[in-house]
Write a structure and sequence with these properties.
Organism (chains A, B): Limnovirga soli
Order of helices and strands of chain A: HHHHEHEHEHEEHEHEHEHEEHEE
CATH class of the largest domain in chain A: Alpha Beta
Pfam families (chains A, B): LacI, Peripla_BP_1
Protein name (chains A, B): Substrate-binding domain-containing protein
Helix content of chain A: 40-55%
Oligomer: homodimer
Structural class of chain A: alpha/beta
Largest sheet of chain A: 6 strands, parallel
Distance between the termini of chain A: 71 Å
CATH topology of the largest domain in chain A: Rossmann fold
Shape of chain A: elongated
GO molecular function (chains A, B): DNA-binding transcription factor activity; transcription cis-regulatory region binding
Strand order of the largest sheet of chain A: 2-1-3-4-5-11
CATH architecture of the largest domain in chain A: 3-Layer(aba) Sandwich
InterPro entries (chains A, B): HTH_LacI (IPR000843), Lambda_DNA-bd_dom_sf (IPR010982), Peripla_BP/Lac1_sug-bd_dom (IPR001761), Peripla_BP_I (IPR028082)
Chain lengths: 336, 336
DNA sequence: ATGAAAGCGCTAACAG
DNA sequence: CTGTTAGCGCTTTCAT
């Protein structure tokens, strides 16, 4: 037979109410009783039924993490950060991948109406240009915290890195290295991170009296071979770029592949810089200059912000943006 | 007010039982009624309360995935595979990292006594040498399926790759390339994958009349700088190995770093082969020869096996081992 | 400090 | 085919 609160109550000649309160450390219960209850609970390997407790209390001790992809070290590190905080707080983490599909993102959030989670951490898809489905959670008092890929229109906590500055720094670095025609690989026109990085790029061009050329902005898709073609087309032109910035991790690899196929030498013929957290950046051929994002800490900070909201009465996270800076790590894909 | 089954029942002049059955497509309910119930449910945005339903039915539509790490592309790809089938089946995935700590693994499994999950997918830690904590789930009728890092003593479904053969193939390849003194980097003496890979290694040595030298087996830890030292010590010796096999992904990088520091040329002075799923293997300097594991498919297969068990009456997965082969991908870290 | 009782929202057994 | 009834295990007033 299963050990429930009733079992304990009967064995100790107490009511279930008392046992419940004792287990939850209620101030109403005497220390002595608490000890006895807890001792027996341990002895009989009592485990509280989560479903019963959630049903009654409305809290599930579970949060959800929704991200576009995981075969990407930025998100790997970020969920590491999230998991570390959740584990410490005794919370459980539900894990969802959208594969950049807005429809999936909506379906996943829809399911959260069911009381499955107490809070949500999300990095939206490249397709997400309005936040109606996310706002729906607010009415359910489920706090949402964004990290990295945020939605501007939501008033909640957001953890980002300094995307504008990073775009600027990356561009300026290439210019300093002698580039005059710099391509920017992006993934979305709606994503704030993409726009911010591009604005930084534009500003750096302007500050250096270089013209902005729309043809140098390449919107990549969620399809490697398609991206490969796009980049190849870019690089076979006579007036091909002499510098490329990959604003998301997976695109750096594609650039390397294209250059290898076209026998373009990095960094002599084209310089490359990637927004990337790959451990192996150092080991690439040539080592990749990166904008390295504080992925682990961003995940951690997002989780911390969410738990702060969960511990408040009114459940709504502060509407504030936390910026954790990225760093430029110069390696041999931009300098010899 | 919240829309519950009662709301629907009242509005349609039905009992809650009928509504519940209609929503669950019970054969007892007329098509007409089903239509009406579902239509209203949609209209009022009814969302079933998961906790109530789980409490009553004993099923949570949730599975757990427990892995040692995620900053590792093997596990990234594996959870991708898992998530893809879970999403398709309408299941939710709880995600846990053990960081190679047995104590954490035990604590996590202990929590599953609470009815939180219907089934478990696990790849055990390097420390896990007995399965008492895992067996405890059997008594709760919670099926467990292993993938990659299995526990031999458990009688359940296990998804692995051909570790023995891979160890053999890797070793034979190095021998074919002229290596005579081959080091093997391992992470555990208990882990079946490690032992299998080592057995393959030994067999290949024997088949080629090469002596087995215990000093060539290096047990690495869960600490990068420590591993770096171990490998460095190995490679500064006069009679240092002329070939190295990294049996887990993260160790390949360490080897490259050591070789760079010691100015050892790969592959001329030492040849390297890694068990790895890094997309970037091609892009390393030099490109890394790998044993590439079918990570995504292993994750997928594990999930499929688990769902098969979940759909059975008796809840116990077939005691069978599914082997999905790895492949040797030869690149320039072993041949010029 | 402890207990009685009500009920969270849903499902399953049994009647009709 | 539909409804009645009875809880799942727990938490939470409200009494005592």
């Amino acid at each position: 037979m299963r050990v429930t609160i009733k079992t304990l109550a009967k064995a100790l000649n107490l009511s279930t109410a008392t046992v419940s309160k004792a287990l939850n450390d209620s101030y109403e219960i005497s220390n002595d009783t608490k000890q006895r209850v807890k001792a027996l609970a341990r002895e009989l390997h009592y485990v509280p039924d989560l479903n019963a407790s959630s049903l009654r209390s409305g809290r599930s001790k579970t949060i959800a993490v929704i991200i576009p992809e995981v075969a990407d070290s930025f998100f790997s590190q970020a969920i590491n950060g999230i998991e570390s905080v959740a584990q410490e707080k005794g919370y459980h983490v539900l894990f969802y991948l959208t594969h950049e599909s807005l429809a999936k993102e909506q379906a996943i959030l829809q399911d959260f109406q069911s009381g499955r989670v107490d809070g949500v951490l999300i990095s939206v898809t490249a397709e997400t240009h309005n936040a109606a489905h996310i706002k729906a959670l607010e009415s359910k008092k489920i706090p949402v915290v964004f990290f990295d890929r945020i939605c501007d229109e939501m008033e909640t906590a957001k953890i980002i890195t300094d995307d504008y500055e990073s775009g600027y720094k990356a561009t300026q670095h290439l210019i300093d290295c002698g580039c005059r025609q710099i391509a920017l690989l992006s993934i979305s026109e709606n994503l704030s991170i993409s726009n911010q990085r591009m604005e930084g790029y534009k500003k750096a061009l302007a500050d250096n009296q270089l013209p902005f050329n729309a043809a140098n902005i390449i919107y990549c898709a969620n399809d490697e071979s398609y991206n490969f073609c796009l980049i190849k087309n870019l690089m076979v032109q006579a007036n091909r770029p002499d510098g490329i910035i990959a604003t998301v991790e997976k695109l750096s690899g594609s650039i390397y592949f294209v250059c290898r196929e076209l026998h373009l030498q990095i960094p002599t013929q084209v310089k490359v810089i990637g927004f990337s957290n790959l451990q192996s950046a150092w080991l690439l051929n040539p080592p990749l200059t990166t904008i390295t994002q504080p992925a682990f800490n961003m995940g951690k900070a997002a989780a911390v912000a969410l738990f702060k909201a969960l511990n408040k009465k009114n459940y709504s996270p502060k509407n504030e943006i936390l910026v954790i800076p990225s760093s430029l790590e110069i390696r041999n894909s931009t300098v010899i």
